[in-house]
Specification:
binds iron/sulfur cluster, 361 residues, Nucleoside Triphosphate Pyrophosphohydrolase, 13% strand, Endonuclease III, domain 1
Length: 361
């Protein structure tokens, strides 16, 4: 039985490698074997698609061409280059890991699964991807794309995140990964998931694994992966205030710790349960010692992993009398022109607020 299985596993790997030689994508991070570049690309690709990643990857490497430059930069600057990619803890972790490698690892990424996983922001799959792609070492990966391929290939019908399924998928991933050509294999299976075995309407007719695929054989491709039972995501209401004085708007920087750390935003406040937006914005004004009747401009929505945010946006031209108080309060605040705002590292929800402002004038 085991023997039969490993024969199949070898078949899967061989077919994937042959397919990859013809159909693999040409991506910027595939033109290098530099572990540093591979690491940056893998972190960016964790929660973001290839098309969105490419310009960020290129910009990031122009500014931080190697580990030493990244470790020498301020975390602020790293986050600013990340603005728009989302999941900012990735940027903070990259910087922290770079500093640690410079301090302890002699300036090179470790060629070892455990040591890689001990670095901030590198989980088992990312460590596997770095090892196989950069160092050509056999190490299984199980990112979103690979997970979907394996679930279909082996017709796994249980909810995909169950612990037993997780274990089974890692075992399969390990079994499939060939001893040699780990570099190509890792990219081949990720590509198959990204371009052929795609979430909706996979292109089974073009798939090199079609004759080995259990889901295809049983006609259940469309049902897999099974949906995870839905979590209800709470909706949080917030008011944001566009305060304008002499053609400049007030923005503030978030603390360096916690959610969206170090990014910029317009003054804002979370609404209490049952509180109307108009009353929340008055509380925001009072809390800062400001006065006035802000005008409602509209609403924007933004989704985070654990909640959704709805921001009601208000606009107010300030009275000059407020000015002194504003400056006193503004330890981490700035008045910026609309052009200045365009270059600012606002977090995602408040980028939408900025778009609303641009559309309103
Ligand atoms: S045959 Fe279809 S479902 Fe099976 S691995 Fe290929 S694309 Fe995915």
């Amino acid at each position: 039985m085991n023997h039969h299985r490993s024969f199949e596993a070898a078949q899967v790997a061989l077919r994937l490698l042959a397919w990859y030689a013809d159909c693999g994508r040409d991506l910027p991070w595939r033109r290098t074997r530099d572990p540093y570049c591979i690491w940056i690309s893998e972190i960016m690709l964790q929660q973001t698609g290839v098309t969105a990643v490419i310009p960020y990857y290129e910009r990031f490497l122009r500014r931080f061409p190697d580990l030493r430059t990244l470790a020498g930069a301020s975390v602020d600057e790293v986050i600013a280059l990340w603005a728009g990619l989302g999941y900012y803890s990735r940027a903070r972790n990259l910087h922290a890991a770079a500093c640690r490698i410079m301090a302890e690892g002699g300036g090179r990424l470790p060629e070892d699964l455990k040591a890689l996983q001990a670095l901030p922001g590198i989980g088992r799959s990312t460590a596997g991807a770095i090892l196989s792609i950069a160092f050509n070492r056999k190490a299984p990966i199980l990112d979103g794309n690979v997970r979907r391929v394996l679930i279909r290939l082996y017709a796994v019908e249980q909810p995909p995140r169950a612990a037993t399924v997780e274990k089974e998928l890692w075992r399969r991933a390990e079994e499939l990964t060939p001893e040699d050509r780990a570099h190509d294999y890792a990219q081949a299976i990720m590509d198959l998931g990204a371009t052929v075995c795609i979430p909706r309407q996979p292109r089974c007719a073009e798939c090199p694994l079609v004759s080995l695929c259990l889901a295809h054989d049983r006609g259940i491709v469309a049902q897999l992966p099974r949906r995870q039972p839905r979590k209800t995501v709470p909706l949080v209401h917030q008011v944001a205030l566009l305060l304008e004085r002499d053609g400049k708007l007030l923005v503030r920087k978030r603390p360096l710790q916690g959610m969206l750390a170090g990014l910029w935003e317009f003054p804002c406040r979370t609404q209490e349960t049952g509180q109307q937006a108009a009353s929340a914005v008055q509380a925001l004004l009072r809390g800062q010692g400001w006065r006035g009747e802000p005008r409602e401009l509209g609403r924007v929505r933004h989704a985070y992993s654990h909640f959704r945010l709805e921001v009601t946006v208000f606009y107010l031209a300030t009275e000059p009398a407020c000015e002194e108080q504003l400056v006193a309060e503004a330890g981490q605040s700035l008045w910026l022109s609309r052009t200045g705002l365009e270059a600012l590292a606002l977090h995602g929800a408040h980028k939408k607020v900025r778009e609303l402002l641009a559309g309103s004038s």
